[in-house]
Each structure stands twice: as structure tokens, then as C-alpha cells.
Specification:
six-stranded mixed sheet; 17% strand; alpha/beta; single chain
Length: 726
């Protein structure tokens, strides 16, 4: 459908640019009496000067379209370039650019356009008006978008590789903003068309006899009663050209590459005669991708009041797609083609009815909770958004979830840790006490204490919930029944376990102090990591574990402290590290949702370290090693599950063949078997000398470490049971 619209729009633009070649008469030559109606060889009649309307119509869009294209291109380029510069860093340049944009936006556009029309030739006035009227708004929007993505995982990975800011903006940020840039270009094109037509209607222009759609409207208005087509035809042409540009900005949906899901109910089953009447009933749910291939096939289950149903299975098996099909919130490229969903015995049809049901009955905690929090809103506003509850009720709920409501209430989401953001999103879902609570991977990134809070929420009397999780231990604690998705992912290649004796120290950190604002996180931190050693860092959510890794990666300069890498002083900023050090220290962030650039294919992302550091990278082999199908190299991140994105980000880090891997919760989105295989893979690499510093909330993962450091009371403390037999 989108391709058809693009073709139609292209044909209309080609007609506007080249239609004059088909004109039956000279557009500027008088060939009949004024305002002669259609007939006698004149398909659309004649105009005020007896010129053929059809010929002027065919030729009248060329200059207008060319000027509009030029104005749109310049305005779009100025807006996006200014937004990139203003959004990359907060400083004098950003303030100056933003102030200039605000000043231009404050000037009445109509007054500015008239002044330009009087002072400049019409084509130059159209271009200048489009730039002055369109670029400031584009700059502001682009600046805010850049501020959102400049801390994304894929941007931070590029910074850790030592790539220059200009390269990062062109290669990482600009492609991620391509959708906005294209839409902005089309809107500026429409603005320029309207401005050019308005100038023509007002009589501005160098040659009054030249064919121009806007001027045709002005000239032929008095003769509308004699030949209405002299007025209607150019007005329709302008409208058609504008309408052709607008739908092209629609986003193309990419087909999913996921395989059909096979599911089966397991666990304790209640005999049908003893079951309470179902609150939610799903029958024969079938979801396909854009190519008609099955993603979920014939899913069916029911959920009784006060019951918790867990959907479990390996990473990437389609649990989220199944539940999104039930809720009618499928991602682009997927559609529900069969099945029914009933709530309290009444069918919930896709579309408006499903939206009303979700709004009034369902509370949803998405798989990427941080991504659902508007970065421009405060925590308090986010929790209360769309709710009829009071601020006191919201604060009490945040406190019950282990958050300091007074401290975070006015904060924006970015300073929050992953676990804190997850609890804020959970508070949003719980505030209205929904009849159905849907939690998608609620345990990822949570420490044991916070996990107990989630268990407590699900165990509340009368709580009806649908829980998606790969953590079967958690599911066994909260669920009354299970649906297990049985499609296995590709297995991680597991090398034979080997004893990994610690070698010489590769990384030493002394007197490290880190904070956030006026709040200390780590004080006088001491850390030593030896060659081939696995050190786990544990501690409560928000204590500074992720900040520690980011500091070592060069992304978060500490307040004080020194570090040595392989016996040499380690500079904190990555811009001051040599290429060998940049390659040797690799970082994998906590959030799989932004770890990979949505504009780049998986294979491109994994191959990037090799291009930067000048070394060969076998992308299919790396994908197989982390348990992914090599065919996923041609996919984009949006086509992968959270666990698959997490493993792809790890493969990208391993492509650099690092000496030190800084890994933040790299197993949080993985099922137990896949996580164990991934750790086996890292054990094999440790035997070759890789040193691993891993932040985790998972006690099973920490139990595999050589040493465990607990971040407690702003100190890195070595635990008593920190050495484990192999």
C-alpha cells in the first residue's frame, strides 16, 4: 500500500515538473477569446488573456515545485543540522541555536513572509520564508530527539570505540532520526508550496505572463462564472500536489522473521467442573507477519478472576507477540488473522473496542519499561498521567514499591536506574487497580528485595494477572497455572568447561568516587580484576552498579580516583584512550531495547568494531556463538525479542576481541538455559584471558563468579562466600 502511494506521489511530482512538455499550445500565447468555456479544441477552455488553460496547467507547476523542493531541502537540512548540534551537547552552542530558533518562531510568520516577498524576488522569498518558518521548529524537534538518543546504548558503544562525535552523529544518530528528517522534509515541501502559491495569488513574481498555478487562481477569479475551470483546475493541481506528499511519510512495516510458536499448557490444571467462570477467554488466536507466515498459531487459554497465569518459554519464542495479539497492540508487521478474545463473556473486537477495554480494564507493564516513560516528564507526572488518583495515593504506591517518592517525584526518567524505572512503570500500571494486570518480563533488572515486592503485588487477594517471563522460578512463586511456549531458540555454543586460574592484574581501580548530583554512589572504591577472572558486582537497585561500569568504560567520568589498565594509567574519557585500549575494554549496557541502532541491520552493528579497529569479524560465527540464527544478520533490532537483542549486543562487544568485558545484566532477558550457555561461552573466553566484570541481580549468575563484590553503603565490599569451586 505504501509503495503504491509512493509511486502515485512520484508520478504527480514528475507531472508537475515535466508536464509543460505535453502542452498543446504555448502557455504564454493568446489562442482564443478570454474565458472561453471548454470546447472547440480547448479541453479546459481559456483564461483571462485567452490562453489555453490546459497548457498553462501542465506548465504551471514546474517553477513552483522546483522552488518548493529547494526550500524544503535547505530548511530541512538547516533544521536537522541545527538540532544535531544543539542536542549533542548542552552548552553555549545549544543555547545560542535554541534562542535563535525561538526568536524566529516568535515573529508572526505572515508578517515575515510579506516582508520577504516585498524585499526579495519570489523564488528567493519562498526559500527564505520556508527556512525561517520551518527550520526553527525542525531544529527544536530534532534537538529533543537527539537528547533522547545521545545516551542510547548504540551511541555509547560508538563512544567506547573512540569514534569522533561527527562520525557518531552521521552514522548513528542521523540514521536513527531518518524517519523524522524525511517527514520534516515533506512538511517543509508543503509549506513551501503553500507559500509559493500564496505569493502567486498575491501577485508577486518577476514575469506576470509565465504560467504559475497560484497566479492562475488570482487572474481568473473574476471570470469564474464564464469558465470555472480556469480557476478550479490550478486549485485542484495545488491540492493534489500537497496531498501526494503527505502520505509518503508513513512508516514501512518490516515483516517479522520469527518462526511460528508452538505452545502447550503445563503445570497444575484445575478440572473444568471446579474452575470459576472465566474473566478472560482466548480461542484460536493466530498472528501472522507481513508475508503471511504464522507467528502464533491457534493460541487458546482462559483466565479466572483472582488467577495468575504465567506464559513461559525461551527467549525469542514469541510470548510477547502472543499477549500483544490478545491486547490488540501488535508491533508493525504483525496482524491477527483469526481467533476471539472475550472479557466477562463479551467479545472484545480489535480496534476501538480493544482500546476502550485496555483503557478501562487493563494495566500493562511493558518489556521495555524505561522506554515507555516520556523522558520530558517528571516521575510524578508520569505516574499520575491519565489517572483520577491523587498525588498522595501515587506517592504512597511508589513508597510501597521501595522507591523514595520524595526524592524522585520531580526527577525525569533518565537518572533512574533500570530497576527504578521498572518500578515507576509498575506504579503507573497499578495506580488505577486494574481488573487485569499484564506484566511482560517484570523480573529483569530487579534485585531480590524488589523482586519480593513484585511477588507481593501478584499475591494480593483477588489479583488477576497475565505474566510473561522466562524465569520459571519466579513463575512458580506467583502463578496458579502455566502456558509454556515450546519453540526452542538456537543453542549457545558451549565450550568444554575449564578451570580458569586468575592471571596477572589487568585492571586496578583506586580511591574511586562516583555520584549523581549531590547524592554519593561510590566512595573510595577499590577494585582489582585479573586476567581470566570473573568478578560479579551485586547490590540494591539504584546503588550505582551500572554507573561503576559506565565509569570504567569512559562514559561517566568519576569525581575522583585513578585506574591502571595492563600496568599503565587509564584515562577516564574515551577520547584520551589509544585505539588498543579502546578495543581491549568493551562495554555491554543493561537495556536491550536501545543497545542496537534501529536503523542498522544486526550484521552491520556486529561488524562495526572490526571496521573501526581494522580487524576481520565473522558475523555468522559470532551470532552462532551467542545462540542466534546467522540469518538474523539481515534483520533489524525491531524484529528481535529483548533476549535476542541482548545477545546481539554481546556479540558486537566480542567482535572487538576484548581483554576486559564490562557487562551489565546481560542475562536479565534470557531464560535459564540460554543464560547458562552464554556464561559457558564466556568461561571459554576467560580461559583465553578475557577478564569479566559483570553486574547482576541473579544469585545463580553471581554464584559462578570467582569473586563477588557487594555495593553497599557507597562501598564496594567483598562478600564472605566469594570464591566458588569450579
Amino acid at each position: 500500500m505504501l509503495r503504491t502511494r509512493v509511486v502515485i506521489a512520484g508520478l504527480i511530482v514528475v507531472w508537475a515538473l515535466g508536464g509543460g512538455l505535453l502542452a498543446p499550445y504555448d502557455p504564454q500565447e493568446s489562442v482564443g477569446s478570454p474565458w472561453q468555456p471548454p470546447g472547440g479544441g480547448f479541453v479546459l477552455g481559456t483564461d483571462v488573456a485567452g490562453r489555453d488553460v490546459l497548457s498553462r496547467l501542465l506548465a504551471g507547476g514546474r517553477e513552483l515545485t522546483l522552488v518548493a523542493l529547494a526550500g524544503a531541502a535547505i530548511a530541512g537540512a538547516v533544521g536537522v543540522a541545527g538540532g544535531l548540534a544543539a542536542g549533542w551537547r548542552d552548552g553555549r552552542t545549544s543555547r545560542w541555536l535554541t534562542a535563535t530558533a525561538d526568536l524566529l518562531l516568535a515573529v508572526p510568520f505572515l508578517l515575515l513572509a510579506l516582508l520577504l516577498a516585498v524585499a526579495l524576488p519570489a523564488p528567493a522569498a519562498v526559500i527564505a520564508g520556508t527556512v525561517c518558518g520551518g527550520a526553527p521548529l525542525g531544529l527544536r524537534v530534532a534537538r529533543d530527539l537527539v537528547r533522547q538518543v545521545r545516551h542510547a546504548g548504540y551511541v555509547e558503544a560508538a563512544r567506547c570505540r573512540g569514534e569522533r562525535p561527527a562520525v557518531i552523529m552521521v552514522r548513528e544518530i542521523l540514521p536513527a532520526l531518518a524517519g523524522f528528517a524525511f517527514a520534516d522534509l515533506l512538511l517543509r515541501f508543503v509549506l513551501a508550496l503553500q507559500l509559493g502559491a500564496a505569493f502567486g495569488i498575491l501577485g508577486f513574481g518577476a514575469d506576470p505572463s509565465a504560467p504559475d498555478w497560484g497566479r492562475m487562481v488570482r487572474e481568473n477569479l473574476p471570470g469564474v462564472a464564464l469558465n470555472r475551470w480556469a480557476l478550479v483546475a490550478p486549485a485542484l493541481a495545488l491540492t493534489l500536489l500537497v496531498l501526494a506528499a503527505l502520505p509518503v511519510s508513513a512508516r514501512r512495516s518490516r515483516p517479522s522473521r520469527r518462526t511460528p510458536v508452538r505452545w502447550r499448557p503445563v503445570g497444575e490444571q484445575v478440572p473444568a467442573g471446579e474452575r470459576r467462570s472465566a474473566l478472560l477467554q482466548v480461542k484460536g488466536l493466530t498472528v501472522v507477519d507481513a508475508n503471511g507466515r504464522g507467528v502464533v498459531d491457534g493460541l487458546g487459554f482462559d483466565l479466572a478472576p483472582g488467577e495468575v497465569l504465567a506464559l513461559t518459554g525461551p527467549s525469542g519464542c514469541g510470548k510477547t507477540s502472543a499477549v500483544r495479539g490478545v491486547l490488540d497492540v501488535l508491533e508493525p508487521g504483525l496482524r491477527r488473522v483469526a481467533g476471539t478474545v472475550a472479557w466477562r463473556g463479551s467479545e472484545v473486537r480489535p480496534g476501538r473496542a480493544a482500546r476502550r477495554w485496555r483503557r478501562t480494564e487493563v494495566g500493562l507493564l511493558d518489556q521495555d519499561p524505561a522506554g515507555t516513560l516520556n523522558p520530558l516528564m517528571s516521575v510524578g507526572s508520569l505516574v499520575l498521567e491519565g489517572s483520577g488518583r491523587t498525588a498522595g495515593e501515587a506517592r504512597a504506591l511508589l513508597e510501597s514499591l521501595g522507591l523514595d517518592a520524595g526524592r524522585i517525584w520531580d526527577l525525569r526518567p533518565r537518572p533512574l536506574s533500570g530497576g527504578q524505572a521498572q518500578r515507576v512503570a509498575l506504579a503507573r500500571a497499578l495506580l488505577e487497580d486494574p481488573a487485569l494486570l499484564v506484566l511482560d518480563e517484570p523480573t529483569s533488572g530487579l534485585d531480590p528485595q524488589t523482586l519480593d515486592l513484585v511477588v507481593r503485588v501478584l499475591k494480593e487477594p483477588g489479583r488477576t494477572a497475565l505474566v510473561i517471563t522466562h524465569d520459571e522460578d519466579f513463575a512458580s512463586r506467583v502463578a496458579d497455572r502455566f502456558l509454556r511456549f515450546a519453540e526452542p531458540p538456537a543453542s549457545v555454543k558451549r565450550p568444554a568447561p575449564e578451570s580458569t586460574p586468575a592471571g596477572a592484574p589487568v585492571l586496578r581501580v583506586r580511591e574511586l568516587s562516583l555520584g549523581h548530583g549531590d547524592r554519593p554512589l561510590i566512595q573510595d572504591g577499590e577494585l582489582t580484576l585479573a586476567q581470566g577472572e570473573f568478578v560479579a558486582v551485586v547490590g540494591p537497585s539504584g546503588s550505582g552498579k551500572s554507573t561503576l561500569l559506565r565509569a570504567l568504560a569512559g562514559l561517566r567520568p568519576p569525581e575522583s580516583g585513578r585506574a591502571d589498565f595492563q600496568g599503565r594509567p587509564l584515562a577516564w574519557p574515551p577520547t584520551e584512550r589509544d585505539a588498543g585500549t579502546l578495543r581491549a575494554i568493551q562495554f555491554v549496557g543493561q537495556d536491550p531495547s536501545d543497545a542496537l541502532n534501529p536503523a542498522h541491520r544486526i550484521g552491520t552493528a556486529i561488524a562495526r568494531p572490526g571496521r573501526v579497529f581494522g580487524m576481520p569479524v565473522d558475523v555468522p560465527e559470532l551470532l552462532e556463538r551467542v545462540g542466534l540464527d546467522p540469518a538474523l544478520a539481515g534483520s533489524r533490532p525491531g524484529e528481535l525479542s529483548g533476549g535476542q537483542r541482548q545477545r546481539a549486543a554481546l556479540a558486537r562487544a566480542l567482535a572487538a576481541r576484548p581483554a576486559v568485558l564490562l557487562a551489565d545484566e546481560i542475562t536479565s532477558a534470557l531464560d535459564t538455559g540460554t543464560a547458562a550457555g552464554l556464561l559457558d561461552l564466556l568461561d571459554g573466553l576467560r580461559a583465553d584471558g578475557l577478564a569479566l566484570l559483570l553486574v547482576t541481580h541473579d544469585t545463580a549468575v553471581a554464584a559462578r563468579a570467582d569473586r563477588v563484590l557487594r555495593l553497599s553503603d557507597h562501598r564496594l565490599v567483598r562478600t564472605e562466600n566469594d570464591v566458588h569451586a569450579r
